[in-house]
């Protein structure tokens, strides 16, 4: 029996979900020094640059008081700072610090090392096949994620 387009979408969706969930679970199986919310917040600051706290909270899906507390902790740790808005001196934006960038780079290195260890346990042919699949799939997944996140949330567009 032929698969309908909807069934094909569901199959791909289920496979991507299993892949993402499995990798996240494995990468977080060792107790990390940073929560997922903290890492996601720093990652967003690194990608998007300085952003309003209210916009940051909405983008990360957490309440503003919780984001305020998180940003305060990040400031206390030297990982984030508040900076003036270039167009409106009354507005303060949250920005990642150089120390925050270093922490995120080290986190990515450690995660990549864990994945490399997993790959090293596979037969060479499996690693080759997986590499080919990733070179094909990754650009498509990036475009899919980009399209799903439009309109993009930025630090200076909407007053709050």
TrEMBL record:
InterPro entries: HTH-type_Bedaq_tolerance (IPR052526), HTH_MarR-typ (IPR000835), WH-like_DNA-bd_sf (IPR036388), WH_DNA-bd_sf (IPR036390). It comes from Streptomyces yokosukanensis. This is MarR family transcriptional regulator. GO terms for molecular function: DNA-binding transcription factor activity. Signal peptide: none annotated. Gene3D superfamilies: Winged helix-like DNA-binding domain superfamily/Winged helix DNA-binding domain (1.10.10.10). SUPFAM superfamilies: Winged helix' DNA-binding domain. Residues 1-146 form the HTH marR-type domain.
